[in-house]
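Exercise 7b. Backbone tokens:
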């Protein structure tokens, strides 16, 4: 859940990460759950239908400066499944964010931030077409607002977040593919607008 776009591994660390993984049917009936964020082996029912997998992963530490960014990730997948001839991984959508940030994962506080989003799925190598994408942003955990998202010419979509001054920025995205499968993902403290960390400005 905490791996980055450069494919750096980020294993769950006991005592430093907490959360849950929950599987439900499309009506909301819970079928399985555990207290491990993003780690589970659940057998989906044989019956064809839509299911929801929800993961809540939070980085926790007694030291407040351990995690400056990416402090929480919540993802909810809506996926279709049914009987398979052999064991196979669930088809989970995955958003590919490409944000033009500094080496400190910061954006210019005085300018809009334009970035692109692509789509893949677990078990598939190809890039998938995006049927719809909605994005919201918040600063310092409050006041969700929509961010414009438009289809690009290369299959990726372009998102524009306005100039926000100095703040921590949260992002929430809901993406749907042509099959109707979807992913809603919320990134808490996704990036800094300006220098919002404790060593350079008060929060």
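Sequence design result:
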């Amino acid at each position: 859940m905490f791996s980055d776009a450069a494919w750096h591994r980020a294993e769950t660390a006991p005592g430093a990460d907490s959360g849950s993984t929950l599987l439900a049917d499309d009506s909301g009936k819970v079928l399985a759950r555990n207290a491990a964020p993003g780690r589970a082996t659940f057998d989906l029912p044989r019956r064809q239908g839509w299911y929801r997998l929800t993961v809540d992963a939070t980085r926790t530490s007694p030291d407040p400066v351990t995690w400056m960014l990416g402090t929480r990730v919540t993802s909810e997948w809506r996926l279709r499944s049914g009987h398979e001839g052999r064991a196979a991984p669930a088809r989970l959508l995955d958003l590919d964010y490409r944000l033009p940030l500094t080496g400190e994962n910061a954006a210019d506080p005085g300018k809009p931030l334009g970035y692109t989003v692509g789509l893949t799925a677990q078990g598939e190598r190809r890039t998938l077409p995006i049927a719809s994408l909605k994005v919201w942003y918040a600063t310092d955990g409050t006041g969700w607002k929509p961010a414009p998202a438009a289809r690009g010419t290369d299959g990726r979509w372009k998102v524009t977040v306005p100039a926000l001054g100095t703040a921590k920025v949260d992002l929430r995205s809901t993406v749907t593919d042509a099959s109707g499968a979807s992913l809603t993902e919320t990134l808490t403290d996704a990036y800094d607008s300006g220098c919002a960390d404790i060593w350079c400005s008060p929060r």
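Instructor comment: The CA atoms of residues 170 and 190 lie 5 Å apart. The longest strand covers residues 182-193.
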